[in-house]
Design goal:
Elements (H helix, E strand, L loop, with lengths): L6 E6 L4 H6 L8 E6 L12 E4 L6 H8 L4 E4 L9 H22 L3 E7 L24 H20 L2 E7 L1 E2 L8 H4 E2 L1 H13 L5 E6 L11 H5 L8 H9 L29
Parallel strand pairs: 1-2, 1-4, 2-3, 4-5, 5-6, 6-9, 7-8
Pfam families: Epimerase (PF01370)
InterPro entries: Epimerase_deHydtase, NAD(P)-bd_dom_sf, Sc_DH/Rdtase_CS
Keywords: NAD, Oxidoreductase
Length: 272
């Protein structure tokens, strides 16, 4: 039977921690997934899925992969603090390479995996503001994510691409404890955020929290609601269902959003 394709979604970093969990949730009739990573996982290939062993720093290769695509989900990059040169090469220059390839290929919808660490020096209380927080990175890694957001803004304003920069909080299969109760992003809600982003067609840049509908509500969900993101999971409810006990709500008063990333245990430019 011939597969009828209505849209093609390119996912970079598809073999990473988020990509492995979310990619299966994006499969649906009428959609082809082109998955990009330097360590492909061909076990998930199928008629609707293809793997591409390509670096995001390879502009011509990314242009070929994005040719004919309808949207881009950019998850690839270094996911923690590193020396400046590494983060510049992969997270900043790599994002520019991918966005430029998307632009030349005519891709109109993009999700960028930013991070809470782009605003990690902001107080927890500020996250409840409906207006997106200005960048206050806690590390060079956070700077690289703030730069990613700035690139997304540029490509929206200058080239009319619809871009969502998702400030991803604590992504994991199940909620942990402590701050993770407030900051959890479930795989299901990450997939819902991707779906909202790749359905947009307004030629604007949007900054949204990548977080589930957790209690307590540290994070304003208004920017997510504005693009159609409706998180359905809650860390307290999930923890109760798993353990039979409601975990204590974390106290974020006076603490920075970046948590331990803002103290001397995590030196700027260090590796851990």
């Amino acid at each position: 039977m011939t597969l009828s394709i209505e849209e093609t979604v390119v996912v970079t970093g598809a073999a990473g921690r988020i990509g492995r969990a979310v990619t299966p949730l994006l499969r649906r009739p009428g959609r082809r997934l082109r998955l990009v990573d330097t360590v492909p996982d061909p076990s998930t290939a199928g008629d609707d899925v293809s793997w591409h062993d390509v670096s995001i720093q390879d502009g011509p290769a990314m242009a070929r992969i994005l040719d004919g695509a309808t949207s881009l989900v950019h998850l690839a990059g270094l996911s923690s603090e590193r020396p400046w040169a590494d983060l510049l090469r992969v997270n900043i220059d790599g994002t520019h390479t991918v966005l430029e390839a998307a632009r030349t290929a005519g891709v109109r919808r993009v999700l960028l995996a930013s991070s809470i660490h782009a605003v990690g020096c902001s107080p927890v209380a500020d996250a409840a503001d409906a207006q997106p927080l200005r960048p206050r990175p806690d590390t060079y890694y956070g700077v690289s994510k703030a730069a990613m957001e700035a690139l997304g803004s540029l490509y929206a304003d200058r080239f009319g691409i619809s871009v969502v920069s998702a400030r991803i909080c604590t992504f994991q299969e199940a909620p942990g404890d402590g701050r993770a109760i407030a900051q959890w992003l479930s795989p299901g809600d990450m997939a819902r955020l991707v779906e909202a982003a790749i359905a947009l067609d307004d030629g604007r840049h949007h900054l949204v929290w990548g977080v589930s509908a957790n209690h307590p509500g540290w994070f304003s969900l208004e920017a997510g609601y504005a693009i159609g993101y409706r998180p359905q999971d809650d860390a307290l409810t999930a923890s109760l269902a798993r353990d039979g006990v409601t975990p204590p709500e974390p106290d974020g008063c006076g603490a920075p959003l970046g948590g331990a990333f803002t103290d001397d245990r995590h030196p700027v430019g260090g590796t851990w």
